[in-house]
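Case study B.
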Amino acid sequence: MKLIFERSREGLRCATIRPLEVSPYEFEKSYVRKDLDLPEVAEVDLARHYTELSHNAFGVDSGFYPLGSCTMKYNPKLNEEIAALPGFAKVHPLQEPSTVQGNMHLMYDLAVSLMELTGMDGMTLQPCAGAHGEFTGLLLIAAYLEARDGKKCKRNKVLVPDTAHGTNPASAVMAGFEVINVKSNAEKGVDLDDLRAKVGPDTAALMLTNPTTLGLFEKNILEIEKIVHDAGGLLYYDGANLNAIMGVVRPGDMGFDVVHLNLHKTFSTPHGGGGPGSGPVGCKQQLVEFLPDPSIIADKKGRFHFVRPKHSIGKVSTFYGNFSVMVKALAYIKTLGRDGLKESAEHAVLNANYMKARLQDIYTAETNRLCMHEFVIDLQKLKNETGVSAKDVAKAMIDRGMHPPTMYFPHIPGVIDEALMIEPTETENKQTLDEAIAVLRELHDMAYSDPQYLKDAPHNMPISRPDEVLAARQPIVKYKA
Amino acid sequence: MSNYLSITQKETEEMFDAIGISKCADLYADIPLSIKNKPPFNIEKGKSHQQVMDEMAAYAEENTVFKTIMRGAGAYDHYIPSVVKYLSSRSEFLTAYTPYQAELSQGILQSIFEFQTMICSLTGMEVANASVYDGSSAAAEAAFMCVEKDRRVILVPSNVKPQVVQTINTYLRRRNITVKVLGEEEGFVKNGKVDIAALERALNDETACVYFEQPNYFGLIEDAEHICEAVHSKGCKVIMGCNPMTLALLKSPGECGADIAVGDAQPFGLNIAFGGPYLGFMATHTDKETMRRMPGRIVGETKDDKGRRCFVLTLQGREQHIRREKALSNICSNQAHCALVASMYLAAMGKQGLRDVALSCTSLAHYAAQEFTKKGKTTLKFNGEYFHEFVTVSPLKATKIVEKCAKMGILAGLPIGKNEILWCFTEKVRKEDIDRVAALFN
Amino acid sequence: MSKLMFTRTHEWVKIDGSTATIGLSDHAQHELGDLVFINLPAEGDAITAGESFCDVESVKAVSDVMAPVSGKVVKVNEELESAPESINNDPMGSWICEVEVSSVPDDLMDEAQYAEFIK
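Model:
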């Protein structure tokens, strides 16, 4: 594929604006830059270019996308159209509040719905992604603990399971904490003995996903809650896996104090090739006064106001967060309603269990229990016997018109080294699941009959496997003519 | 009432059989009864698509959509070409995830590579990342990039966007880093601009970096080259926060000598959309050390095993999914789709078009300033050169002007004092609207 | 006469009087795969036997390098910065740093013991 710069021809124009209605202003020379190099293309060139790029991209609309922990469910078109309404898209963030009551009302309603779903007492919509939410939630915890325990507060450690997403420990460090890893038990849940050994007067919080990274419901959650709270720490809920349980059980009822959600996972907003997301953070009553600035409150007359919470941690982004994403998420919640949300969660779990049931005779599933919305298969045995790795199987799936599952996560060296994490989501139909099952079974056979074919996969894409070592050793990160 | 499932009752039952359960509730046997299905969720029942459209449109209708916007202060209302709207909404772009699987994501990867290249051209830098959340988080992340073991003070003049400095504070406060905001009282900001001599005095060997904006919050053009020179002379780093639209005409951060360029690329094709999603960008030099401290995704060019050019996410060892607690940033999801829109916008406008837009903005602003101050009752607060934003001081109360403009369908500038307004003009503003507002002043 | 020893975490160390040179074993580079980056220690860093003093990156992993001995870093092989691949190509020749030794743990292995250990 040509780069847009390689399509450029001097003098071509695409979009144009109205002629200047006033006399042109000329800056003094000392302000003016040297030549600026940007592409010069006609509209048809631009359309062809990006259409070609789109043909070399793969979205949920293109096919099965069982990317574990990313919840690649269908993204409703209705929500896109709603978010593009001028009343949302063409409104300035610093307009007088009296002129943006609709948006404030919308944000208020979304926050309330999310509080209902998570069992929280307060909610901020300001964080722009899951990791941003984690960081915000941990700052809330830090501020709360300092206020509770006074300046002498020595709670500077955040406990993180060794199976956690990398964002958890990275966020903890960004929020000024030290990370203590907690070991996993045989089912890759929290090892209670290790947890007991590691909590103490220096514990600020335990970060947890439930369902766990292995796609299992953490059965010991109430005991974990007691261990952490008894030690004076708080419980942080990473909402990466909420899709399995929304409408079924609430993090707040499990004992979590702070929750972040991913509107781009659970609430159907598109991932856009990596973003924008939205990572609202909910909290229990005692943390509400620390929420980011501003919060929205409603008065008795039904007017909405921006307020700075009493002991706010401050701002985490420029304005109010990724507003358009919020619009889409609220439209989703309204469409599904309380029953539809629960039904979606149930089908997410059903689909995962169905795939697992039809694969676990040949692929090593990490557990015999019923899983939640996703499950992990460990290809170590296959690799030992055939030399075919998780990556090889994943790449071969590409040839069959599917996006591969998440590879090599979770990764606990020496324990799980060849993981594929499969999350079908609720919006896939049974035919798609059956097809994917058939493909995975066929690839398993092929690993024994023709391993080289898998090692060379994909075969039908415009490129074969890229040389990532070359890319990292000699970085070329921009185009040079 | 509505759902996005694609399954029949019969299929559901077949799946139950395959798993060995009889109803969905069986799937949740692991959840303790004491917490399951506990409260009735106070969320309404589901609705039809049509009802949802009606209800959502009702929120939108509660807002005022101004025909003309003369307000900026961090959100800029520019013309968005149709071709950008259409092409960017293609579902292969919109519904894809982060391009971890390079073989079926070349389109996304290449679009990011093109974005990085365009950001480098604009900023005069050598390497840009695939985006961060917004201009504020870009500034905060950049400040952290500059921190060293014994250089832990960030200096920020008070004439930057208040949201940015607040965000930097939130980001860095708990990391044993001091953010010092210096203003007029300290003599650091004079006549709306950074005072170079005061800046030199404020720097010492504990200063990690200086963050300043070009143009600054008041729209004024700083003496960026001398700021960079002064900061470098004390061994500190400079982060230049830019409105990238101004870079169509004004000297780039690279030319001025900045170490890191950041900003919000929302002006490039993104709706003002009540504050987001916007597009934080970051660019810097290619020395290995600086590049490795850069947060977020970076796309690199490489070859496949047949020698064909292709693109991959690279230098991933910096990132949280590999480096975990040792990562310098936690960023994972970014604003990729916004970056796609911005690069489409830049390609659609092109070399000449972008200059036309920038020239229109600054020309309209200078015309407006001249008209607003014609009778001498209203004056400009600062006398320095500006781009497309400026501050007026007027005997009329700022809120009064805002009200009067609103009646004409115009969103006036942002009141930043009892009698002070921060105006912004883009190519969307008509001369006749400027004249109508000028009549209020004269 | 210098003495070549190995750790259980696959670093090699050549001790010559009070100076030690440290690198990664052939086994280590093989397990790590193609290295793309090394986070070198700085001259003057105090290092402690058994603790991480440096890390190396392959495309998809970052691994700590553990100090075989305790002491102070006196010289760093800056060339590795731009050519981490030399660890893959010549692990025994690619030293990471030189250390002024303060103490040597007693569980280091000699070449024969290490060969046995990695079997």
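The mean pLDDT of chain A is 96. The remaining cases will be described in the next quarterly update.
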